């Protein structure tokens, strides 16, 4: 009878986990890492499944990172269903869960932050000042604790994937960044831990994000100028009751203006009640930039 795989281990100490991951890699095992803030849903578990398919061992982290929340944002009320999360990760075959206390990530007196320019400017970076600095800092710190072969991120947070890739490249971090497709509800709403905040009425309205992106994809295939498409995206969101933060089409790899032949991404973000939602859709290159 084959030996059963080792049970899931919850590790709070970064040094302990780093040693375990390095030992596994020295043993020839490929390690995948899925950073999360918990409140896990099928989107997170798809990242874990991809990591498990591509790696011998998977580590996931659960850490609600205070530095990526702005004043007045939902850090305090962010859902923390720890037991359910650990059960889900155990069921998905995760070997290690890194669940550090805040002081293990931000030691007393901490004074170091990573600031990313380029893809971190604009969009979420403009609406949430300091957000991507918090993200870059924590991802770097998490990657030091979990020195994996590959780290898995969701395309749902498209700008975040660009920021992480930029930081990994600029700091020469020895990890492969893998971006996985967005997992959606049957009506197209991207799964998000924040969807749980939505009232029943706002949940119905939230389909406007997906509809706005579908409209963008449809119009993108025509010769419609970008400004016309962006206005239509915004109209669709507003008709659905969304207070729009942005609705834009930009180059997928830089978030700068679309140029002829570059792959593009449609980005939307806005608020329904007190809940902030973001989504995006990749668009194929089209012959001419229409702006
Ligand atoms: P979070 O817990 O929100 O920080 O997300 C952790 C990771 O899961 C990030 O890489 C997200 O982009 C990814 N993620 C969140 N929602 C989804 C989704 N619906 N589909 C795929 N990945 C997702």
Describe this structure as you would to a colleague.
The protein has 291 residues and is an alpha/beta fold. The chain has two domains: 172 residues, HUPs (Rossmann fold), CATH 3.40.50.620; 90 residues, Pantoate-beta-alanine ligase, C-terminal domain (Pantoate--beta-alanine Ligase, Chain: A,domain 2). Helix content is 36%, strand content 19%. The protein contains ten helices and nine strands. A six-stranded parallel beta sheet has the order 1-4-3-2-5-6, sandwiched between helices. The chain has a three-stranded antiparallel beta sheet with strand order 7-8-9, covered by helices on one side. The longest helix is centred in the middle third of the chain and has 15 residues. The structure holds adenosine monophosphate (AMP). The site of adenosine monophosphate has 17 residues, from helix 2 and strand 5.
The ordered string of helix (H) and strand (E) elements is EHEHEHEHHHEHEHHHEEE
Helix content: 25-40%
Query: What Rg, in angstroms, do the CA atoms define?
Result: 20 Å
Count of folded domains? 2
Distance between the termini: 64 Å
Low-confidence stretches: none
How many H/I helices? 10
Give the percentage of residues in beta strands.
Answer: 15-25%
CATH architecture title of the largest domain:
3-Layer(aba) Sandwich
What's the CATH class label of the largest domain?
Alpha Beta
CATH homologous group name of the largest domain: HUPs
Ions, cofactors and other ligands present here are: adenosine monophosphate
Question: The CATH topology of the largest domain, please?
Answer: Rossmann fold
């Amino acid at each position: 009878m084959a030996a059963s795989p080792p049970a899931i281990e919850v590790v709070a100490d970064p040094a302990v986990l780093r040693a375990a991951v390095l030992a596994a890699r020295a043993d020839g095992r490929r390690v995948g890492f899925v950073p999360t803030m918990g409140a896990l849903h099928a989107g997170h578990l798809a990242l874990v499944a991809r990591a498990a398919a591509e790696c011998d061992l998977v580590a996931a982290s659960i850490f609600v990172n205070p530095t990526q929340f702005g004043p007045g944002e939902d850090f305090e009320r962010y859902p923390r269903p720890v037991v359910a999360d650990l059960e889900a990760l155990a069921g998905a075959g995760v070997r290690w869960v890194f669940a550090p206390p805040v002081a293990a990530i931000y030691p007393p007196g901490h004074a170091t932050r990573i600031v990313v320019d380029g893809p971190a400017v604009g969009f979420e970076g403009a609406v949430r000042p300091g957000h991507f600095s918090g993200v870059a800092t924590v991802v770097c710190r998490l990657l030091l604790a979990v020195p994996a072969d590959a780290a898995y991120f969701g395309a749902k947070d498209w700008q975040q994937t660009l920021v992480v890739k930029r930081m990994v490249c600029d700091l020469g971090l020895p990890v492969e960044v893998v971006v996985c497709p967005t997992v959606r509800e049957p009506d197209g709403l991207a799964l998000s831990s924040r969807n749980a905040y939505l009232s029943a009425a706002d949940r119905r309205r939230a389909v406007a994000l997906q509809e706005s992106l579908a409209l963008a994809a449809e119009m993108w295939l025509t010769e419609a100028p970008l400004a016309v498409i962006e206005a239509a995206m915004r109209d669709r969101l507003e008709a659905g009751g969304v207070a729009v933060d942005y609705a834009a089409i930009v180059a997928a790899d830089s978030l700068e203006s679309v140029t002829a032949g570059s792959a593009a991404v449609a980005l939307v973000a806005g608020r329904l009640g007190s809940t902030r939602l973001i989504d995006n859709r990749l668009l194929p290159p089209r012959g001419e930039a229409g702006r």
